Amino acid sequence: MLTSIAMILLLGLLTGTIFSKLRLPSLLGMIIVGIVLSPHALNLIDPSLLYISADLRQVALIIILTRAGLSLNLTDLKKIGRPAILMCFIPACAEILGAIILAPLLLGVTTLEAAIIGSVVSAVSPAVIVPRMIKLIDEGYGRERHIPQLLLAGASVDDVFVIVVFTAITSLASTGTASAGSFLQIPISILTGILTGAFTGTILAIFFKKFHIRDSVKILILLSFSFLLLELQRRLEEIIPISGLLAIMSLGIALKQRYSKLAERLSIKYNKLWIAAEIFLFVLVGATVDLRYAAAAGIFAVLFVVGTLIFRMSGVAISLFKTGLTKHEKWFCMIAYTPKATVQAAIGAIPLTMGLRCGQTVLAVAVLSILITAPFGAICIDNLHKRFLSTQE
To answer: Which residue, of 150, 200, 269, 278, has the fewest CB within 10 Å?
Structure first.
């Protein structure tokens, strides 16, 4: 396993640096490293590391979402108001609708199978969006209209919404029934996640003010509580739904509200943790990609992915209606809200393992959505923010 870790870190750093020098997103190089090292290509990653791959990717998400929470100002979120709420579900619903319309025509599946495909591809990737929005916040781009905060908050809740919808639709496909309670879990998990994270962050802020501890130790405490929040989600899922990742982000927001000086110091340390976490995240995402499925999908699957992206961008435009944003700012939001990666890598194979007839098609489209949208979205964000957003230092 140690050899595999060394290869992931060294090759991930090398390709990431090369791609950055070429003015391409470093994550693209990391994903390519994962594809090359994966069991589907050279098979150089230790199976024991792949076995815990999902957990490692989740740790990386914990780091970047905590960092996001430590960067978000609650006052800014309140100023955004209606668009922030709409961005949490309107673009995803628009993309699922697009999948229901396009998939039967292009992929030859039933309406229910199209809905399953849509629920897989419609989740935006916080791993791609969040670090870039944090960077824009730090550099002052879009600050006047709080555009990075809008996209950052929306991307975090979007995943919660889509995963619950995916669970309900796959349950309908496998059992033939879907209860209203399945969809009621969406607002409940969001609300309980926010409240649980806010409570935990408030308690930790009080604790850190009362007891003098080194910042490095505080990071360990924060990480431990983040892991416990995810475990709480797992333990209580049959009783009450809680979004663990949303709770982690809320923890960071609460800590910033209660102890802003500490939040600023911890943000710097989380940035350093992200250097290694980003490599593991995107290399291991690449390791889940089997190019055979992408090749077998054909041109119609590519057209499907592009078509659903148009629906998603239309959903963003609807969410931003009458917000006062300029045309360029709206276009930036529409394009920046397209990248897919982590959720598709996590749930793309589930319909296949469930034995659903559309399983292989779902996996192929999930793979294609990662390969097309992650580089596209990252490249556009990195290259368009200076042209489309105003800056305030």
So the answer is: 269
